[in-house]
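FIELD: query
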Amino acid sequence: MSPTTSLAPPGDALVPTARLHGVGGDFVMAVWETATVGVSRRIVPSVDGVEAPRPYTLLTVPTGWGGERTIAVLRCPAGSRTITLRDEAACPVATAFPSSLTDFDAALLMSGLDGGARLRVVRLLLDFCRGAFSLQNDHRFAQLCRRLILELSPTPSSLTVRCAPTRQLALCEGGVSGGFGEIMATVVLTPSGMRRLEVSPAIGTVPDKRGRLPLHLVMDRALCGSETLVVLLGRTGLACRTVAPTVAEIPTLLEWLERRKPCPQSLRDHLMRALAVRATDEPQAAAALRELQVLMPLPRRHVAAPDRAVGGDIDVAVSTGDGGLFLAGWLHDPHDMIESIRVTSPFGDQRITSSLPHRFPRDDVAAIYKSNAQAGFATFVPGSPEPAPALQYRCELLLRSGGRIDIVPPPRPLNPADVRAAVLGAMPPAFVTQAALESCVAPAVAPIHAAMMANLPAPEVVRHGTPVVDPAVSVVIPLYKNLEFLRFQLGAFAIDRAMGGLGSDGTGGAEIILVLDSPEQREELKHYLHGLFGLYGLPLTLVVNAANHGYSTANNAGAAVARGRNLLFLNSDVIPDKPGWLPVLMAALEASPEIGGIGPKLLFEDDSLQHAGLYFGRDFRGRWINQHYHKGMPRDFAPALAPRAVPGVTGACLLMPRAVFDEVGGFTTDYIIGDYEDSDLCLKIRASGRSIRYVPAVELYHLERQSISRHAGYTRGVASEYNAWLHAGRWSGLMEDLMGRDWPADPPTALSPRRRNRDRKISAA
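FIELD: result
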């Protein structure tokens, strides 16, 4: 291609006239040559005297005959007359005339260019179409690129479709030369357009007999056809592949992988990343990604040999869903050889942490190395959210010398509750400091728990008998695991006439709502209640949660179906001392509109006091905790006989108006399993300006914490410490204020022995 020239306007030097080609849409390619080499300058195209609309691009490459060839791709609206290309001094360097468009000639464009220059031309066009979106689906531009690529690679080898990761995707297999190097970009050309693959292909490490390395890539099945070209752009070269015709039936991804175990790491990584970029919008891709991680996990790997100077393991590696990563495990490094830990997700994201401030002893590690060092650690590593849920990570202990030790932790549990429990159980409670809660446990637990609470399915509601007409109070009883006290509790209700009707006309009684938070007991409990209903004739409503989500959620679920104007939250291990207790509680609640909640006297089975009102105090470490007035004192301990206002009452038996419950938002659900939710509700009542009262005239037995003691996620972890931290962070100011007040008993006139004895006789009757 030799330059052509034309006379420039008077006073200007002669400038080349560029050859002009239409390349698709309203884009044109201007090509011209100059004899000068090595003059670097910025060139700006204009159309009819106005700078060309963006995007546009230019490239100058040397020719084999000593000059330079410049290629400009720009928009040229219909009806344009002149294209002028000027340097930074506004001097014309070339002109072109849209009226003289010629057919594109790939061979002519590439003539006189060496391999490096040809590669730059192809890259220019393939990269430019990313910004000029309309060109991606323009068949003329696709054909132009196709001809250029075939000039470079006239006889491409082929890829074979091996399996279908989803109905829409295909995994293709082929090969590349051993010296091709890293693939920088992959472009798929079809007769109608082009597509740049988001995930780089996988290149294996073991060459075949011809020295070619295995190549795998995932692409849309719709792109696989006889006219398709797959272009691999490397740092210094280009490779082109066709796609062999596919058979009607191809195996699924898991079927294909089962036949070729073990799966190379590079292929596994490519599959994970290719599925992850589609998982958000394509349910099948999300399902395939989950199946691959669950059914083909990485083999567990750790280093724990007493004769080695360095050892370590990662027991827990879980993403928190909002970009965070929680790690827990142990390191044995007496000679300070480990510099940091690198964690790689299945999708290629890497994080490095070198600070492990939260350490604690591990008896199992001490037994291996005969050392009392604090080998255990837990840490939280912030980051960006991943494209899909990661179930397993790869870790490396990075040594100061540059060496590394590979560690593969186990996959995270599939059940979100088990993930939360794994985080809560990663540190011994005795070593969970305030700093560990704030910077490690809470940032991990809070988003995991919030995600669980945000996706609660609707509970099942089962009714036994005809519901109570216009109930005055709804008794909400959460159940978890322990059902052995239910028969005694319902039996006590059945012989109490006041439970059936609090009004003179027999209406306004109590409706009983049982909330099962251990759904695996659903059939057992339904059968049990069927028998109890037949025995007592007591109408019952059963609410069955889809999974165990804790005390707050259970009570809120019961309140959601409740019809009473008042709500009584009652533990399943609370048994009335005698009939007639509920009217007394109701009268105390309705004595004043200022009262937002009340609670009775609760007794241990040995008649000692369990609860005479709740207050807030600090433990030996200065942390706010809930405490009960006069706990452990005799049943008739004089200070516990006086009704009075108190800072709060326990949720084991808490009566409050339905309107107040709704106003304060019910039970807060960000506490874990079952701790501090009742005091949180009391503090919300207090914050609304209402009072809370203790009513000693009502006595019930409370077989304390019978259900929560069966919850492994609570007993084996630091849920209580986390809840206390959360509670104090939210309410420390109000608790400080409340505990700075006096809490006197009511005036003695309300406590005369004659009145108290008369009330007891009435209740006994």
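FIELD: remark
The longest strand covers residues 691-702.
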